[in-house]
Fold this protein.
Amino acid sequence: AQTVTQSQPEMSVQEAETVTLSCTYDTSESNYYLFWYKQPPSRQMILVIRQEAYKQQNATENRFSVNFQKAAKSFSLKISDSQLGDTAMYFCAFGLGSSGTYKYIFGTGTRLKVLA
Amino acid sequence: DTAVSQTPKYLVTQMGNDKSIKCEQNLGHDTMYWYKQDSKKFLKIMFSYNNKELIINETVPNRFSPKSPDKAHLNLHINSLELGDSAVYFCASSPPVGWQFFGPGTRLTVL
């Protein structure tokens, strides 16, 4: 079965500090994408960062970066210089399949609170 | 311009009623999805359509019927609403391979 596990239901971090959200997944596929989505209180799902599984280099998007360990099936998200606007639910997900039949599986989410 | 739109954003109704949620995307994507997010924020896929054809149907009760009149629209019709149907429903679309674009969600409350 393909699963995504986020073992930290809730986390908090002081403003301007760094926090890492963990995610592990399970799949027997070799080609897939990994994603982190953010869901603020407005409930809009916003893509934070994505990583193609065939790329060894970790993706970076401004203050957000990932640590992708393919062999360990781990995909953690690091948020540097945390800001109050980073307060949200964060979902790890992976997508796999072929064109037109792509399927996405989401983790249960980590609620992150940035403290002033 | 809104990429993926859903109407209505809020829906309050009585048990036993039938309701529809509409979704439209202007991104030119072939694939669209419906997700249900429960009170614990768990996001579960319900359906996916590719170019108007049903691809994924994840053991959803047959009271839920998606309809795709064209590849830019994927509507969700729910018959005989139950209390357990209360949730936020998200529509999304995606290119052939890549990330999904989500709509703003529809909060359905069944009384």
About this structure: The radius of gyration of chain A is 14 Å.
